[in-house]
């Protein structure tokens, strides 16, 4: 995995369905399906749809993720007490502050490269421990006061109008430069983990979507290419990115150009706003957005340590010199963004939280902290991502995407005391996947990406 992070990421092709005569370009690429092709030749969306139909029809010939899943089972079933973070912190410490997530940042413990991944507490940092209870602070000394977590299972809709071509695992491909015509590019190179994040939103026709913490605009473009959005709001955390994001979206959105693929009149009327919010996004909504306008799909791609970028870029990352304060503030920023997204989401709407890091302190711990601190004043449930995990696992031999199911042990342990009537909404850990972690590999170098989905309840 470390070697994969140091290598260039693998890219897929997202074809612009609003580009003139894009159908001819796609058709010509379909004719290069031979093994001697050096261009991406696998239709990503059609592959997912095919395997989804097979899973629906109870076809049990799906491929399995190699080694990783078996290793995960062995690790989690171990009776030994296992740590999860590279800090001097004991999971049994009940005096830990439930708000100060900076305790999880390895700012005081120096670990050399030779020591990394040689200690037991480092080798299993991507997995969870069943006896780990996270950030719990009981009023008394009663340790049985864990709340149950409501988990809902829903079917995932694969947007058929997305046209994405990728290559098989382990194959080297060449991607030509995109063609620019009439203000449009014919395709864009993307990471498939970004597509999976959009798939987790489960977009439906006439959805109103907010993309918080927009950086490059790639996920916004993918969402627009589905042809399902009625409105899209991109919220920038940095005003310096506004020009880039605006240009990115303008070259991949419907702009009155008639093409063979542009047969969805509704998408031509998609309203797109790009705003910059420095602090309080809710204040912007109350002042500048129609009061009657509701957003039912919110993507929270939070700022994080960005593992791949941090180890391959220069000094302009969170681990660079002079960035200690930013590193310490990351958990607070992530929690605030998730809280804002949940407050802005309309009842029965959905919020997807995602990062580009493998760090449990920015993934599982943020989710558990949010649930513990906000479940009393915000009514929400977690969405079971097991159907999406099963689909990606079934496509492993074709797509090569390595994905790990994430469980929140804080709530898994409490399912044993569940009442019978809550059995449908609080699923057993065998049938539940609280989140997904897409991990890089040398043969199929996508990610890393962490994904969790919430539903705002009335």
UniProtKB/TrEMBL annotation:
Superkingdom field: Eukaryota
Native species: Schistosoma mansoni (Blood fluke)
Protein keywords: Methyltransferase, Mitochondrion, RNA-binding, rRNA processing, S-adenosyl-L-methionine, Transferase, Transit peptide
GO MF annotation list: RNA binding; RNA methyltransferase activity
Record's catalysed reaction(s): a cytidine in rRNA + S-adenosyl-L-methionine = a 5-methylcytidine in rRNA + S-adenosyl-L-homocysteine + H(+)
Domain SAM-dependent MTase RsmB/NOP-type stretches: 191-457
Annotated Gene Ontology cellular component terms: mitochondrial large ribosomal subunit
Binding annotation for S-adenosyl-L-methionine: 280
UniProt similarity note: Belongs to the class I-like SAM-binding methyltransferase superfamily. RsmB/NOP family.
GO biological process, one term: rRNA methylation
Keyword Transferase: yes
Subcellular location: Mitochondrion
Protein name: NOL1/NOP2/Sun domain family member 4
